[in-house]
Amino acid sequence: MKKKMSLPVQILIALAAGIAVGLICSATGLEGFTASYLKPFGDIFVNLLKFIVVPVVLLSMIDGILSMDDMKKVGNVGWKTVAYFLCTTAIACVIGLVFANVFNSMGVFPKLALEEGAVWDKATSANFMDTIKGIFPSNMWEAFRTANMLQVIVIALFLGGAIMAAGEKGKLCRDLVSSGYAVIEKLMNFIISLSPIGVFTMMAWVVATQGAAILGSLAWVLLCAYLGYIVHAVLVYSLSAQVFAGMSPAKFFKSAFPAMMFAFSSTSSAATLPVSKECADELGADGDISSFVLPLGSTINMDGTAIYQCVATIFLATCAGVSLSLGQMVTIVVTATLASIGTAGVSGAGMIMLAMVLTAMGIDVNLIMIIYGVDRLFDMGRTCLNVTGDIACSICVSKWEGKKAVKK
Ligand code: ASP
Description:
The chain is mainly alpha-helical. It is built from 18 helices and no strands. The radius of gyration is 21 Å and the shape is globular. Residues 117-126 have low confidence and may be disordered. Aspartic acid binds next to helix 16 and helix 18. Aspartic acid (ASP) binds next to helix 16 and helix 18.
């Protein structure tokens, strides 16, 4: 039997074929062909992303909150872990935004001639208090219907908390959520498996209509994200290892390297778990602590994804000809932190959640098409960083808990 080509290979071929077809169409004046006959397939793909984003956010957030129940059992370890995750992810967002703004001010992010104007209303028109007021829904279905992501997150937080508070009586809802999430995850994997079609058609259309210059812009935005990933790793994880765990950064990265490489090639934090566990234990993490921190981290701790979402948001806003105020950047930090928490540890999930950040910021989700073709390249680096963050957390928390045991 012939072996099926793996998804990464399919995506790579689709990427190259899309660029080639785009260049040919642009040289032969066939841009119209790509717009009429290829882009619609890209549109279908983006529609599927839009269609899945509300259930994914809702169910993954509720599921995450319900898993905190176990956290109560682990007490201190749980809160320290979550605090570490949140702080490092917020720092990641800031690093992503700083790099994106520096690159933007260098003028390497293009302003594109887009036929249908990109929507940018909510974020520019609302002031801070209106934004706060606006995240509390008065009608649950309306929030789902309009894909108001901040409201959907609030609904998830409320429902998750209430199911937890209902205890035994809430068991049916709890089971419904975990079963629903399993179903949605399958659906998400199916949509992701259609990526090669999306990559080919979108790349061909983008290159044909924007010209070969867009390839240069994509290279810049990739470079920007990778610089963010590297600086975050060097700054945050080296410091964590040194200051909190008393370990030299060189030793940390050397021992974490196998997991980093596995993550880089598999683009899935979840699939990398067994390797990360081995690396964390080799670095001296407490076995019980790493067994708790790593699975939780592979579900909610995504620093690389957060950097990518910030960089991509600024890039796409620039493509649409919009510059952002400081207040809007703060909103990006909050939404990208939440979005990265809601991102599943599987290949391509961060891009689905990018749709959430864009929606929350009032940016047209269809713009994702511009960078979707190269998402795999972003994903390799962001997963590598995500996994490194989980390992760093497990050794820090082990150290903190170890000290406590000694004091006792
Ligand atoms: N692939 C990433 C991970 O598994 C998630 C993402 O797509 O950002 O960590």
